[in-house]
Design goal:
alpha+beta, 5 helices, two-stranded antiparallel sheet, 6-stranded antiparallel beta sheet, Alpha-Beta Plaits, about 170 residues
């Protein structure tokens, strides 16, 4: 981990169990990854499942400075998912925790394991609204307009969590 740090963006979501507590813990866990520093965390958002099933999701986005490579970051996030009990019985199944690398600097990558930027980030309100909160330069008004029909609600108490707990 001697590489210079890179700004990475990670989307967090959960819709099984105590999703709020799970995402809050995941925010702390992601911030504690080796060679990684939390730059900014969004508020928490409640969203209806999008191209998925089950109860509503709790979502957030974080910006990180990390010395982990893109695949090291992906594997570390997958380890956190497993620690939270994540199972993958079928595509878009309800989940205890979902952690996606949205951006890794300006890297463009397409491998069987990881595609960067995330291929569907622009189509999802649960990524765009929290991302607009923490990195407004990355989100255009047109992108926000394109997802305005997707149900999403910013949780009112999440600002106090961000300020005091991370």
């Amino acid at each position: 981990m001697s590489a210079p740090p890179v700004m990475a963006c990670v989307a967090l979501g959960a819709n099984l169990g105590d999703a709020v507590a799970t995402v809050q813990q995941a925010l702390r866990d992601v911030a504690g990854l080796p060679g990684t520093q939390l730059v900014k965390a969004s508020s928490l958002y409640r969203t209806a499942p999008f191209e998925a099933q089950g109860p509503d999701f709790i979502n957030a986005v974080v910006l990180l400075q990390t010395q982990l490579s893109p695949l090291e970051l992906l594997h570390a996030l997958q380890d956190l998912e497993l620690q939270s009990g994540r199972e993958r019985p079928y595509v878009n199944a309800p989940r205890t925790l979902d952690l996606d690398v949205v951006f890794y600097g300006d890297v463009v990558l397409k491998t069987p394991e990881l595609t960067l930027p995330h291929p569907r980030w622009q189509a999802r309100a649960f990524v765009l609204l929290p991302l607009a909160e923490v990195w407004p330069e990355r989100v255009s008004a047109a992108q926000l307009l394109a997802v305005q029909e997707q149900a999403i609600e910013r949780l009112p108490y999440s600002d106090s969590f961000r300020a005091s707990s991370i």
